[in-house]
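Example 3.2
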Amino acid sequence: MKIPDESHPITLSRAPTTVRVLFEGHEIADSDDVLVLKEADYPPVYYFPRQDVEMLFLRRTDKKTHCPYKGDASYFTIYRDAQVIEDAVWSYETPFAAVDRIKERVAFYPEHVEFQLGGLTAAREVDEIVRHTDSGSGSSQAAHWEPNVSMPDPDKAEHDIDEPLVQQPYKGVGAI
């Protein structure tokens, strides 16, 4: 076991936004609790909590690897829509103390998936809309949103069709 130091730094931080993973255009992970591991000169890696990953599409394989800084990794194959990508996902189930926060989280090889950062994802957007929508009983799970359009000003509405042409420029010119 090696301890991260100045010659081989490892940092863990929480992703500042929601991270979504798409596989062949289908959402396979969606979380606002993603850890970003930055190790030495390697690209950052996103680690997702398992409860935010569609684990039904992952099957554990026999592959195991060892990292002297993180510990032993287990691998998963993605099975989705007749697509099979061997060992495309990995997890450190008992990592070393220096990176204990990634325990039992999963990470995806970026060449096999697409990462989307920020904003509400489709599933969470629908959940938000449902929470703020009247169920028909006159109430909702959350306070109604403020209207994003305003009602017409009744003092400026056209009340009289005989007003001068200046206020009704198309009056009397036929159908439009």
